Amino acid sequence: MILANKEKVNILSIETSCDETALSFVTASGGLKKPTFVVHGDVVASQIKLHQPFGGVVPALAKRAHIEHLPLLFKEIVDGGMRPEELDFITVTVGPGLEPALWTGIEFAKQLAEQYNKPLIGTNHLEGHLYSILVSKEKPDPKKIFPAIALIVSGGHTLLLQMDDLTHFKKIGETVDDAVGEAFDKVARMIDLPYPGGPEIERLAKEGNPMAINFPRPMVGHKNYNFSFSGLKTSVLYYLRDSAKAKKDIVKADIAASFQRAVSDVLIKKTLRAVEEFDAKSIMISGGVSANRTLRAEFAASIEKRFPIKKDRPELLVSEFSTDNALMIAASGYMDYLRGKEYKIEADGNLNL
């Protein structure tokens, strides 16, 4: 559905792609040149405790929890001041993600769109991560950050993009197997850390030596920009097995720190090589793994080292909203609205950029 552009639009956004139920109510303006968002309401219901006993997300449980949380969060948004009749449109994540989870948000959005006679725009979860930088407190000036290199690192995706501006971008690299977030979760399970693994590994790594174990840096020397983390994960498994056979002390903190350093090295080296090749003015990092403060610090240090002259140094922009949320869906829905871009209003677990 292509809508007539208005100077300001009120948006209700819905996100249920995995284990976070999220809704937001924002007013967007500024168009493609300088998109601006005023947040009136932003609510999230996490399912971490629900899935922790299973070591990962159980789709059937996630679906049930979304169905339970959606009307409660909608009521919270309305109680916070949203008048549904004042909405210009509703936007909802249609993919990628867990299809049973995605359908809950889609069906709820359809019901609201019909009840209040509002247009419904489907949007891409990955574009949500990409555009999440636009709803951060430190809003970048689109005139100053492009061309840019964008790194999306989450539980299910690892992508490297070259961006000419907010609407023109192309994928230059992606993982050929496990996403980086998956690798964190799997390694965490190997050393008996709870789900989700990323924050737990970062916490434990602070007590360890990142140089203690020389885990491989898969594909770091390849000329392309693809990633692979399956071999790194397997090397941790073999290290644990061989250490047990040799009755060698296993220091879990050293494993966590060394694994985390290997991941950081691969992400940073590939990203900075892309910056040089495409003469990028900035590096945009988003997705759940970008919440890792060690990764952020190592990125900043590596940028300074690689670009010692300040005027040549690309700006590092890390999304304030790294984990799944509805504000980023409002941002991507607004961009789709401005471009007249349409996604089918149906769940697509494998939807890509």
UniProtKB/TrEMBL annotation:
Chief location: cytoplasm
GO biological process: tRNA threonylcarbamoyladenosine modification
InterPro entries cross-referenced by the UniProt entry: ATPase_NBD (IPR043129), Gcp-like_dom (IPR000905), KAE1/TsaD (IPR017861), TsaD (IPR022450)
Enzyme class: transferase
Keyword annotations of the record: Acyltransferase, Cytoplasm, Iron, Metal-binding, Transferase, tRNA processing
GO cellular component: cytoplasm
Compartment list: Cytoplasm
Binding site for Fe cation: 125, 129, 324
Catalysis: reaction(s): L-threonylcarbamoyladenylate + adenosine(37) in tRNA = N(6)-L-threonylcarbamoyladenosine(37) in tRNA + AMP + H(+)
Residues given in the record as substrate binding sites: 152-156, 185, 198, 202, 292
Family: Belongs to the KAE1 / TsaD family.
HAMAP family in alphabetical order: TsaD
Protein name: tRNA N6-adenosine threonylcarbamoyltransferase
Naturally occurring in which organism (per UniProt): Candidatus Wolfebacteria bacterium GW2011_GWC2_39_22
Gene, per the UniProt record: tsaD
